[in-house]
Amino acid sequence: MLNDVTFGQYYPAQSFAHKLDPRLKLLMLIAYIVALFIADTFYGLALCAVFIVVATLVSRVPFGSVLRSVKGIVFLLVFTSLLNLFLHGGDHLLVEWGIIHIYLEGVLFAVFLMFRLIFLVLGSALLTLTTTPVSLTDGLESLLKPLTFIKFPVHALALIMSIALRFIPTLMDETNRIIAAQKARGADFETGNIIKRVKAIIPILIPLLISAFRRAEELGDAMDARCYTNSPHRTKYKKLMFGWRDLVAALVAAALIAGVVLFNIYAYDIFPAAYQYVVIL
Q1: Backbone phi, psi, residue 74, to 5°
Q2: ∠255-260-263 over CA atoms, to 5°?
Q3: Are 70 and 141 in contact, with CB atoms under 8 Å apart?
Q4: Distance of CA 255 to the CA centre of its chain
C-alpha cells in the first residue's frame, strides 16, 4: 500500500550524484527550487526538466523510483489544476457554460503549475534517494553551523531530522505488516463509502502508534546505554570535504539559474510568434 512512497528512502549506488558532498546537494536543491519558481516561461520549465532528467541519469537511480514520488501529490495536482483552470482569467475564452468560464491562459497556467509541482517533488525525491539520512543531516548541520553563534541548537535539530528520516521507511514497513495482518483477519480497506474507509483506518492507526512509541522508547534506551549526550563538541567519524565533483555540480546549478533567467528575458526575441503562449506569469 505504501510501497510507492520514496521520500526518506535511499537507493544505494556508485554514481557521480551519490559521491557529491551532501552540503552541495542541499544547496543545489535550493538552487533548483529557485530556478523553478523564477521561471515564467515553458522554456525555463523545460530547462528544469532537462536538469532533473540528466541528474536522474547521472545518479543511476531508476526513473520508476523517482516518478513514484509523484503519486503522493496526485490529489494536490488535480485540485490546484482545477482551481486555476476555473478561476484564472484571460483574453482568449475557450468554454463558457453558465458561471463557468475557461480561458486559454487558465489552461496554460494550470498545466504550467502542475509541471512545476511535479518537478519540485522529483528534485526533492532525488535528493533523498541519493543521500543517506546520516549524510543529509550532517550536511544540514554543517550549513547551519553559523547559527550556533546565536545559541541555536543546530546539533539537536540535525539529530531530530536524522531520526525522523530513519523512521519513515521503518514505519511504512510496519504499516504494511499491520495492513496485511488486518486483511488476513477479514478487514476491507478498498470498498465502501468514505466514512467506512475512514473507520477501517482506525485498526491500523492504533497499533501503528503503539509500535512508534515502543520504537522511540527503545531508541532512547539504546542512546542512553551508549552514553549519548547532546554536546556541541562531538567529533565525527567522516569529515565532509568538497572535491572536483562538487565544483562541476555547482557550475551546473549556476548555469541552470542563468539559463532560466535568460529565457525569462529573451523569450520574445527567441520565439516572438509564440510569446503570448510561452510566457505564463
Answers
A1: -60, -45
A2: 120
A3: no
A4: 22
What does the alpha-carbon distance between residue 27 and residue 158 come to, in Å, rounded to a whole number?
16
Q: What is the pLDDT of residue 1?
A: 46
CB atoms within 10 A of CB 113: 19
Is 45 in contact with 267 (CB distance < 8 Å)? no
User: Could you say which DSSP state residue 101 is in?
Assistant: E
Question: 188 is written with which cell numbers?
Answer: 476491507
Q: Where are the domains of the chain?
A: 1-150+238-281, 154-229
Q: pLDDT for 200-217, tens place per residue?
A: 777 788 888 888 888 888
**Contact criterion met (CB below 8 Å) for 229 and 17:** no
- To which residue does cell 490546484 refer? 80
Q: How far apart are CA 20 and CA 136, in angstroms?
A: 11
Poorest-pLDDT segment among 52-61, 63-72, 109-118: 63-72
- Which residues have a Cβ under 8 Å from the Cβ of 182 and sit 6 or more positions away? 189, 203, 204
Q: Find the length of the chain.
A: 281
DSSP codes joined into one string, 182-239: HHHTT--SSSS-HHHHHHHHHHHHHHHHHHHHHHHHHHHHHHHHTT----TT---SS-
Tens digit of pLDDT for each residue in 158-191? 778 778 777 877 888 888 888 888 778 777 767 7
Q: Supply φ then ψ for residue 201, to 5 degrees.
A: -75, -25
